[in-house]
Write a structure and sequence with these properties.
Number of domains: 3
Strand content: 25-35%
CATH class of the largest domain: Alpha Beta
Oligomer: single chain
Helix content: 10-25%
Radius of gyration: 30 Å
CATH topology of the largest domain: Nuclear Transport Factor 2, Chain: A
Amino acid sequence: MSQKSSSSLSSEDNATQGDAAASSESEVAIVEPDPEPEVLGEIVTLAAGDTLADVLAERGVSAQERFALSKAVSEYKDLRRLRPGDRMEILLTPEEKGKQRCVKRFRLVTDEMTLVEIRHDGHCAFTGSLRPIKHDTYLKSVSASIDSSFYLSARQQGVSRKIFTEFYNMLSARVDFQRSIRKGDTFSVVYEENDCRPLGTIHPGRLLYASLTHMGESIGYYRYTTMDGFSGFFDEDGQSLDTQLLKTPLSDGVLSSLFGKRKHPVLGYTRMHRGVDFSARYGTPILAAGDGIVEWAAWRGSFGRYVKLRHGNGFQTAYAHMSRIAKGMRPGVKVQQGDIIGYVGTSGVSTGPHLHYEVLRNGRQINPSTLKLPPARVLQGEDLRRFKERIKEFQGPIVGPPDLLHAQLS
């Protein structure tokens, strides 16, 4: 902003004013006007059952414009994932008798802490942009007892659905939440909350610590980034939550057949089933169960399209009946845990879309469901020392500037 000129002059200015006027035309100070403040729109909080189209219709926006705006927003945000309590800003043209209102600007904060901004371009169309949003990050700590339901107990303490889901998924490999949780068990979480300035909304950030005490026994994990850049959760001894192999190498699937003797669904006689089966939709991505090297990626008899990986510590994994093998999969290729190696299908001898999954140790198939797997990582040396020092921040009341704690665990 430019400084405004002053109408008063000092004595020195008065003495030289005449000379300046005689020698040249008087200079005129040009004062730029202050920029007009941005006009804010209406802040709308979604209620249960609301859609963006409903909100716009209630405000007199035409069906054509509602459709165009929804289409523009959906390029940045899945509108099916809008939830009660989500807030958005809508700037509309003024109400005029006999005219439908138009949307001049629409704003929405995504879960990824970016701002979706849609503007009317003046030619019956909308243009959008996505940019990082200014926000303040704080830490929130919750500790509580479980009453009738773990989910309800967490929600009653203000834990967001996002954080609860991450907590649940994180510990589900260690705890049978459906059968084991009892009234009186306790849980603790520490996570980030992001206060977004434009809309005044609070969005959950990263989960930093989670623990559960069940029948007097506690398990807890801390987020930590190693010196070589690996970010994950570790227990207080520095052992990672992630195991060497995934027990469920699918993005979505249901266990449908166990390891052991069974009557073959196609051949009709009883024989050993040396793996487990997961029913899943045709084309569901199949994930590498662990870091490893591809040993086989081709058709293999009754297994159909088949991939076999070699991992450390004498482990191998095999995946059968794929609809197709992922591009680039061939013997010798290195993969990382979670990489897509193929897609669910029904190739070979199969009754329908599913994944047949095997784990082998020293060349022999073993039951993946009962296998106790080693941690994917164990912190050592300087990494372990740094980790031990930094988790002290969470062993007791959380005090101190949130940004300090944030930086220490980043």
